[in-house]
Amino acid sequence: MSGRTILVWFRNDLRIHDNEILLEATEKAETIIPVFCFDPRYYTETAYHTQKTGSFRAQFILESVADLKISLKKLGGDLLVKFGHPEEILPEICKKYQVDEVYHHREVASEETEISSMVEDALWKLQINLKHFIGHTLYHKEDLPFPIKDIPDVFTTFRKKVEREGIIRSSFATPSKIEVPDHLESSELPTLTDLGIESPIYDKKSVVKFKGGETQGLQRLKYYLWDTDLLQTYKKTRNGLIGSDYSSKFSAWISAGCLSPREIYWEIKKYEKERVANDSTYWLIFELLWRDYFRFMFKKHGTSYFMEEGFKGVKQDVAINQEVLFENWKNAETGISFIDANMKELNLTGFMSNRGRQNVASYLVKDLKVNWTWGAAYFEDKLIDYNPASNWGNWAYVAGVGNDPRENRYFNIEKQAHDYDPKGEYVNLWLKD
Ligand SMILES: Cc1cc2nc3c(=O)[nH]c(=O)nc-3n(C[C@H](O)[C@H](O)[C@H](O)COP(=O)(O)OP(=O)(O)OC[C@H]3O[C@@H](n4cnc5c(N)ncnc54)[C@H](O)[C@@H]3O)c2cc1C
Questions:
Q1: Ligand 1 centroid, distance to 382 Cα (angstroms)
Q2: Is 403 in the pocket of ligand 1 (CB under 6 A)?
Q3: Is 230's pLDDT higher than 60?
Q4: Contacts of 147 (CB under 8 A, 6+ apart)
């Protein structure tokens, strides 16, 4: 081990289970310095006049960081929490504690990768290496049957080949002990006020109390699989709208990295061996594959995912009064109950079902003819489970400028409401007080 010190830079990987950077650092260095930076760039207004991180997600991240700090302390370590730009903070810590190397997990979206590049440049000036790891997906990119640039733009083609030829690696073990430098400074978490964010008000009708942190994420995994066997019926219930149990609700924990998709996969495999394997147990893995797919597509197509014309270069027709229409949509005032109920749920809780998301997105783009990127930016502000690839990838798909092979997919909202909310229970829940 030779007295080495490695800085472990946590970002959207707020966990100690299945975390390669943490495990490898503890194996290769005598002391490690786990660090999380609250980067002010994530707590500002966007070009779309939305918040980059709204209150539900900001609170969730604070809770997740707090939980990680506790877990690291239990292992004998700590988490250094800082507020500021990582490209300034990390070199300072490196100088102060004579760090030999910095580890982090690679991101795919442009803002995140630009920050990594700035950190890399700043560390390079100190002759310190930033080592990149891959740790956000079910499949490691090197275990895919094609290089990223050749990944098919049609999901089904990708899925079939990956399911046949891809490999999912085992999860990494949790370190049993962590050594930090003797005089590691103490640090406190900021408050929401420090971040310039208002406190969220939780509506009692929220599907789940999404409390951030690996502890809660792993509890939800246990609940959904082992405690309730809900996994066995997932395929039948997943298009539901009301309550905590129609779908897994793993997304917020996965997006912050509190739950590793690979850990979920192996837990499902264990469940299939010990209890039952059916089309529902398969289907949850199928959905996780969608998540992987959008991440790989981001890597392949880069910033074009954030452009109005997408990577397909399709020009969307927009209405002359799209500003007014957009305001109505955001404020749950379109007059279409099914849309308004979903938008109200989003605004009051930070969550919306997958069925709801597809409908409100399609309605905004195809019926109201509003620029789809405005909707995506609004989701970025509000969603507790927001992550760039899943959000912008799905929006581009619905808008017809991304991966959907069907030209002009259209959701008939009236029919959707009739099929998925036949008795109007969901609409009543959100629109009647
Ligand atoms: C317009 C739009 C925007 C979206 N934005 C996001 C987002 O920012 N963050 C996000 O995590 N999901 C996003 N989704 C995907 C999906 O709606 C949510 O992942 C899902 O509703 C979360 O609930 P759950 O965890 O109970 O999902 P489950 O149905 O239980 O699925 C299990 C997991 O699979 C993954 N998953 C499921 N469906 C998708 C999908 N279509 N794309 C990518 N991953 C998927 C999620 O990680 C999810 O937690 C979006 C979908 C649409 C149509």
A1: 14
A2: no
A3: yes
A4: none
